[in-house]
Specification:
- By secondary structure, the chain is α+β, with helices and mostly antiparallel strands.
- The chain contains two helices and four strands; from the N terminus they run βαββαβ.
- Strands 1-4 form a two-stranded antiparallel sheet.
- The longest helix is centred in the C-terminal third of the chain and has 7 residues.
- The radius of gyration is 10 Å and the shape is globular.
Length: 67
């Protein structure tokens, strides 16, 4: 899964936590419960679950773009 760039729009995030549940090696939740990409994991860290996490987001706050 090389060649991708992940971003999470924290202004759109509602803190549902689906990203962290689906791909915990790439996403986490901050102290306020909002999703965020783990530092250094913006490339998806080879996880096949990143796209599934983006689909699971109820407000489409996650973008997975090809580099």
């Amino acid at each position: 899964m090389s060649g991708v760039r992940i971003s999470l729009d924290q202004g759109r995030c509602i803190g549902a936590g689906q990203c962290a549940l689906t791909a915990p090696q790439v996403f986490t939740q901050d102290d306020d419960g909002m999703g965020e990409v783990l530092p250094g994991r913006e490339d998806g860290h080879g996880s096949p679950l990143v796209r599934e996490a983006a689909r699971a987001c109820p407000v489409s706050a996650i973008t997975v773009a090809e580099d």
